[in-house]
Amino acid sequence: MTNWNNILGTQDNVIKTVQFAVGMLPSTKFESCFVGNGSNPVRQLVRNGKTRARSLARKALRRRKILSRYNLPKV
What is the residue-level pLDDT of the chain in tens, covering all 75 positions? Predict the structure, then answer.
């Protein structure tokens, strides 16, 4: 199970996650943003497929009402 509190812990991480979720950031760059975070939860997330990872990221952001704050195109 993905620890979204760890991934969305800082504002910079939230921005990177939003960019990844809407397709503005490739999965490799998204993964490299979290390299120093111990077990790297993003790597485990992307390992199951980047399409599924983007979908789960959008779902997590919607549940926290974060995605609606950004004026981004819908995917």
Answer: 788 988 898 899 999 999 999 999 999 999 998 887 667 888 888 988 999 999 999 999 999 988 877 766 555
Q: What is the DSSP string of 50-63?
A: HHHHHHHHHHHHHH
Task: Give domain limits for the chain.
Answer: 4-66
Q: What residue type is 15 in one-letter code?
A: I
Q: Where are the alpha helices (DSSP H) in 1-75?
A: 4-7, 11-21, 27-32, 41-47, 50-63
Rounded Cα distance between 68 and 58, Å, is 10
> By three-state DSSP, how is residue 23 classified?
coil
**Rounded Cα distance, 46 and 11, in Å:** 21
Amino acid identity of 68?
A: S
What token pair was written down for 14?
Answer: 């939230």
Q: What is the rounded distance in angstroms from the CA atom of residue 14 to the CA atom of residue 67?
A: 9
